[in-house]
Amino acid sequence: MNWYPWLNAPYRQLIEQHRQGRAHHALLIQAQPGMGEASLVWGISRWLMCQQREGLKSCGRCHSCQLMQASTHPDWYKLSAEQGKSSLGIDAVRQVAEKLYHRSQQGGEKIVWLPDAGQLTEAAANALLKTLEEPPANTWFILCSHQPGRLLATLRSRCICWHLAPPDESFSQNWLQNQTQKSAQEITTALRLSGGAPAAARDLLQDKPWAARQSLCQGLYDGLSQDLLSLLKHLNYDDAPERISWLSTLLLDALKWQQGGEMALANIDSQPLVEQLASRLPASVLDESLRQWLRCREQLLTVTAVNRELLLTDQLLRWEQLLASSPLQGN
């Protein structure tokens, strides 16, 4: 598993808590996609399981380390939804919980990792909550979530929340310059579109997703003067929520532009498009447009078996109607 340099400080801080006996049995790591929280969890897990720790590092030689390296350690449990499913049910939680109350097979620590705690159904979350309230001895729970606010409040209250914050933009820019051949302007844009998460920005800068984003920007530029429905061919993909996020940042940038916030733009490589939006549409229309698209994105993410093409078409028609009513439309 890849290790990232911005994980060094949080790793040391979390391991020191364990060394000083101050670590909480349930850790909830809040991070944006692309921050590498899985690597951080893996590093902590290897240290906890190691039988011959060397300061802040695991030895890499003991039997437990060998089992961890082979991903076959019997006391390390990963709880996630089955392939093809989006939720984690109560049965999986109960099966692991039963094992936790027995002595660990290697005579050391036991670790339960939930890569996405948001996958828990309400029943599964309540079952896990009971275990967190009366944790078995020598057992550590590590939960990860991109949106901890959506977890049960009672579940969050049993955990210590750790925010894995993005590194400084200059640090991430330097790291990305060694990861991609893109220009400094493109790197900064990708970083800001990714909320400052360097690994997410690196993935966005790959040829295929970056070309998709550029195509969307050009499609919006053309659609504003021609036909907004033409945007459907740029949006109607499996990653439609991400594409809507790109569109939403352009609308937000236009609002920033109107308020003199040019230095805070995310899409710094698409300034002409941002200027066009800012000059043609009043703030009230930009604001309502942004709200509409965010609602559309939420529906795509939460409505079961939603008809994506129909939803996007309906949103484009409503957006077209909204823009047509703008007093500045066409100027």
Main features:
single chain; 331 residues; alpha/beta; Rossmann fold; Zinc Finger, Delta Prime, domain 3; 5-stranded parallel β-sheet; 15 helices; 5 strands; elongated
Radius of gyration, rounded? 23 Å
Q: How far is it from the N-terminal to the C-terminal residue, by CA? A: 53 Å
As for the CATH topology of the largest domain, it is Rossmann fold
What is the oligomeric state here?
A: single chain
* Count of individual domains: 2
CATH class of the largest domain: Alpha Beta
Note poorly predicted spans: none
> Roughly what is the average pLDDT, rounded to an integer?
95
Largest sheet: 5 strands, parallel
Q: Output the structural class.
A: alpha/beta
The total count of helices amounts to 15
Number of strands: 5
CATH superfamily of the largest domain: P-loop containing nucleotide triphosphate hydrolases
Residues in helices, as a percent range: 40-55%
At CATH's second level, what is the architecture of the largest domain?
3-Layer(aba) Sandwich
- Beta-strand percentage? 5-15%
| Topology as a string of helices (H) and strands (E) | HEHHEHEHEHEHHHHHHHHH
Basic shape: elongated
Sheet with the most strands: spatial strand order: 2-3-4-1-5
Pfam family, one: DNA_pol3_delta2
Domain DNA polymerase III delta subunit C-terminal: 210-321
Protein name: DNA polymerase III subunit delta'
EC number: 2.7.7.7
